[in-house]
Design brief:
Number of strands: 6
Order of helices and strands: EEEEEHEHH
Structural class: alpha+beta
Length: 178
């Protein structure tokens, strides 16, 4: 559900929220210009913190990016060729940092390329890794990792199901005791 609240230029699909209850959000900026389709994944805090001072609201409503590549494109093409999407809200600094890195790795932002060789994402680092690797994980390894990923997810779902069934059985037993 798209929400109706003042989020500046950001789009957010989800329930209305009080930004004072969250630390920040991860986002995707997408260039919609046909000659330069590209994206950027980043994070932004709702508040600024400094030692010995109260927190202050950050510039999150008007923020574009810390990426000079994205900011230069916005200046060159105009904001009408960009979408700004909040992907997920986080309550803690650690969650925000880990969430950004996980999304960036998941989307393979350092190495994904279009058929013409242009990068899909303008991210130039993930966490402290500031290089684009010359080697990539091959398709065979990706297939094996996919099997592990889905096996773990199935095991987790089965474990939750077993746990829920055990809880229901324990409740029934508790109800029968005098």
């Amino acid at each position: 559900m798209t929400i109706n609240q003042d989020l500046g230029h950001w789009d957010y699909v989800g329930d209305p929220f009080d930004f004072d209850k969250y630390f920040g959000f991860i986002y995707m900026i997408q260039c919609t210009h046909p000659d330069n389709p590209t994206r950027y994944i980043g994070r932004k805090q709702f508040h600024m913190y400094s030692k010995g001072k109260d927190r202050r609201v950050s510039n999150w409503k008007t923020y574009s990016s810390s990426s000079k590549h994205i900011n230069n494109l916005i200046k060159e093409l105009g904001t009408e060729h960009f979408t700004f999407e909040m992907l997920q809200l986080f309550e803690t600094r650690g969650g925000l940092s880990a969430g950004e890195v996980k999304v960036q790795w998941y989307l393979d932002v350092l190495t994904q390329k279009y058929a013409n060789g242009n990068p899909v994402f303008l991210n130039r680092q993930i966490g402290a890794i500031k290089f684009i690797p010359k080697e990539e994980i091959d398709n065979e390894t990706i297939a094996r990792l996919d099997r592990v990923y889905f096996t773990v997810r199935e095991e987790q779902a089965e474990s939750r199901k077993d746990s829920e069934e055990t809880s229901i059985e324990e409740e029934k037993t508790d109800d029968k005791e005098p």
